[in-house]
Write a structure and sequence with these properties.
alpha+beta
């Protein structure tokens, strides 16, 4: 009986320590996640099927739009990491939009 109680206390204490450690890690450095990041390749014209056409500002972006996208990548390392995890060459990012749900839509060439 004493062994069962000791084992339960040990399991409880180790679960608490893991939870505390995870909370500490989250506040110091958020983990990169691909959740909430959608990548759209503008060279694949969606209008060829049943999809809708991309806006001209996305399919043929101005240098300012591209520069703003690259600046956002520089200021948001978690977004850059999420794109790298999806094998996106960061130099190919031409525009970034924020979706209604807070996720990012990243347009690439």
């Amino acid at each position: 009986m004493k062994k069962a109680i000791a084992l339960a206390a040990l399991i409880s204490a180790s679960a608490f320590a893991v939870g505390a450690s995870a909370q500490t890690m989250d506040t110091q450095m958020p983990a990169a996640s691909t959740a909430g990041v959608t990548v759209v390749n503008v060279t694949n014209d969606p209008s060829s099927g049943s999809g809708s056409r991309l806006p001209e500002s996305i399919s043929n972006p101005s240098p300012d739009v591209i520069q703003n996208a690259q600046a956002e990548l520089q200021s948001d390392p978690s977004l850059a990491d999420a794109l790298t995890m999806q094998s996106v060459e960061l130099a190919n990012v031409i525009a970034i939009e924020t979706a209604a749900n807070g996720g990012k839509i990243v347009y690439i060439r």
